Amino acid sequence: MQLNKIFKGLVIALPVLTMMACSSTDETAAKAASEESRIAQEQAQADRKAQEARDSMVETGTVNPVMTPAEEMQQQLNALENNQLVYFDFDRASISSDFYNILDQHAAFLVKNIGQSIVIEGHCDSRGTPEYNIALGESRAKSVQTYLLNAGVSASQISVVSYGEEKPVNNDSSEAAFAENRRGVLVYQ
């Protein structure tokens, strides 16, 4: 850029010098030199303004950091762990269509990350015998397992456990409390 300015100055100054050499009076030469100097200054100023305008056109903005695959996987895992519950109707082990989207998200993650595994916990409310509730909790967990297997998750990534009524999230004896306790939980290992 500096060399370009010097060249432009020489191109302008050369004719001035030529005119000065050919000039018969000092006054004419002085006027020509003054005019050429003024033109050179104006040109240099115009060049600086043009460069400043080009520099100001550079777009600036925020740059989103690029995540490593491990960071991306951890972010997805955190999101899934915030949405890991499947609730069941009383005395039922069938999955409501309300939970298909949640299970599809877990299945997609597990298919993409074959090194990840989960334990599906089956839970029941306190109604029924302990033996019955253990069996019902297992049926609920196996329903979730079957759904994930049908979605393409490898069987080696899934294990099932039933806690029956042993780990309630709400100890009240209301229908709302019972509904909270009838659940399947997807726990990542």
Automatic annotation (TrEMBL):
Signal sequence residues: 1-21
Domain OmpA-like: 75-189
Topology of this chain in the membrane: Lipid-anchor
Region described as Disordered: spans on this chain: 32-56
One Pfam short name: OmpA
GO biological process terms, semicolon-separated: cell division
Cellular localization per UniProt: Cell outer membrane
GO cellular component: cell outer membrane
UniProt keywords, alphabetically: Cell cycle, Cell division, Cell outer membrane, Lipoprotein, Membrane, Palmitate, Signal
Tree of life domain: Bacteria
UniProt feature, compositional bias: Basic and acidic residues: 33-56
TM region positions: none
Functional summary from the UniProt entry: Part of the Tol-Pal system, which plays a role in outer membrane invagination during cell division and is important for maintaining outer membrane integrity.
Subunit details: The Tol-Pal system is composed of five core proteins: the inner membrane proteins TolA, TolQ and TolR, the periplasmic protein TolB and the outer membrane protein Pal. They form a network linking the inner and outer membranes and the peptidoglycan layer.
UniProt family annotation: Belongs to the Pal lipoprotein family.
Protein name: Peptidoglycan-associated lipoprotein
Organism: Paraglaciecola psychrophila 170
Source taxonomy: Bacteria, Pseudomonadati, Pseudomonadota, Gammaproteobacteria, Alteromonadales
